[in-house]
Every structure is written in C-alpha cells, then in structure tokens.
Amino acid sequence: MSQTPLLSVTGLDVRTAAGAALVADVSFRIAPGERLGLIGESGSGKSVTSLALTGLLAPGLSASGSVLLTGTETIGATEATLRPLRGPAASVVFQEPLTALDPLMRVGTQIAEPLRRHLALRGATLDRAVAAALAEVSLPEPRIARAYPHELSGGQRQRIAIAIALAAQPQLLIADEPTTALDVTVQAEVLDLLDRLVRERGMALLFISHDLAVVSRMVDRIVVMRHGRVVETGRPEQVLGAPSHEYTRTLVASARALDAALDPGETR
C-alpha cells in the first residue's frame, strides 16, 4: 500500500489579475519524510508554486486546482483554515532573511512568537525553548536573542529564519532559495545545517533552487519547471545524469560549463 502524501498538488494554476498564467497544470506529491527539489531558471514558476501551497500568493494573483496539505485543501481556503497549517503542517524559509524578518523586533521575540502561538509556551518554559531553538541552529550565545536583524550577519539571519520556521515543529519545510543571498562559505554551512535538521527531525523538504549541484545534494527527487510547467521529474541521478527533456539538458550543460569556468585546472 502506498504512503499517504503529506502534500498533494494536482493541476495547480496561478494567474495574474489580467489572466496571464504564471503556473500551469503543475502536479507533484511529497510523502512524509521525503525530499523534493523544484529547479528551473528565474521566472520558471518555482517560487510562485511554493507560495500557492500555503495561501501566501501576492495580492492580484489567484490559484486554482487542488493542493492538499496534511489532507486539508488550501486552494480557496479561508485564513481561519490556513493559519493553523502555517507552522505545524508547513513552514517556509525565504531567500532573503533581512526582508523576511521584522526589522523592529528582537530576534528572540520573533522565535518566541510561533512557540507561543502553536505550542502554547509561556514564561520560563518559553525562554528555555527560545534558547534551545537558537542552540539548534548553532547560535547559542544569549546576546543573539537580544539582537535586531540588522545587527547580525547574513548567515546568522538565515539561521534565525530557519529557527523560526522550525519552531512549530512542521511536518514539511519549504526552503525557497535559502542560500542565494549568502557567500559560498556561509552557503555550505547553512546547507549542512538544513540537511542535519531535516534528517534529525524526520521532516519532509521542498527545496527550491536554480543551483543543480545544491539540489542534487539535498533531495531524493527532482521536478524541473519551465515557463510555469513541469517538464521532467525523476531522481537526481536520472534527471541530472541522463536528462530526457531538452530544457533539462540545457540546464545541466550550462551548470557544467560554469563549473569548468570556475575551475579551469580541472581535467576530464
């Protein structure tokens, strides 16, 4: 018997108010504990797809089709239905933590908010949970909780964003280009952190990126998108090693050319 999907997306369409299609007939599933990657160039519909899953589309965009998250339909759902799902069912780590975090609120308070709302923690128990959340993302110093986002480095801010996303113990973590705004060394540290936390918690992961090397490292299965549509799906070694669609072959060839340019001493 097949495992009931944690997330089931069927025929997802996202359109602008003028009727232009940003995402068209997208379908995929994520089982509990599975890691799925969405890849494609900028404008392929990856991020729009991820925002549609939990009802976070920008004003003026509308979604149709079906998205079942832990068995609840999110397309067309009210805020009262969606709010309990954001956190315990699925949480999002966005690309740029400086804009995702509240600049006027200390980061400890921002971590405490989902702990208070979803886990009903208060007082000293809440304080200990905030400290534990910071330690889990390798930021154990008490001063970090008292800092404002602008007082932290890019890597520290992204770790705070991850701590907030994990606070409500989500079943699915949606990571939307989580390392694009970071330098190479910090990227590797954040990816190691995400990989460890997803593995230790047994979470499912939807990892969105244009970086094929990063995606292949992080996921079990890949969905390739182009112009808002799915063009290829499969395991990383299949999709990246022997792509069947011309667009995927172009992506892989471009990635290999970039690697060769960055490492001209490499021999083949």
Strand content: 15-25%
CATH topology title: Rossmann fold
- The residue-averaged pLDDT reads 92
Distance between the termini: 45 Å
Low-pLDDT windows of residues: none
Helix content: 40-55%
SS-based class:
alpha/beta
The CATH class designation is Alpha Beta
The coarse overall form would be globular
The Cα radius of gyration reads 19 Å
Task: Provide a count of the helices.
Answer: 11
Major pleated sheet: 6 strands, mixed
- Strand order, largest beta sheet: 6-7-8-3-9-10
CATH architecture call: 3-Layer(aba) Sandwich
CATH H-level superfamily title: P-loop containing nucleotide triphosphate hydrolases
Element pattern in H and E: EEEHEEHEHHHHHEHEHEEHH
Descriptive report:
With 268 residues, the chain is an alpha/beta fold. The protein has one domain (7-262): 3-Layer(aba) Sandwich (Rossmann fold), CATH 3.40.50.300. Helices cover 41% and strands 23% of the residues. The protein has 11 helices and 10 strands. It has a 6-stranded mixed beta sheet with strand order 6-7-8-3-9-10, sandwiched between helices. Helix 4 (107-119) packs across helix 5 (123-136), helix 4 (107-119) runs parallel beside helix 7 (154-166) and helix 7 (154-166) runs parallel beside helix 8 (184-201). It is globular. The relative contact order is 0.16. The mean pLDDT is 92.
In short:
This protein has 268 residues and is an alpha/beta fold. The protein contains eleven helices and ten strands. Strands 6-7-8-3-9-10 form a six-stranded mixed β-sheet, with helices on both faces. A four-stranded antiparallel β-sheet has the order 2-1-4-5.
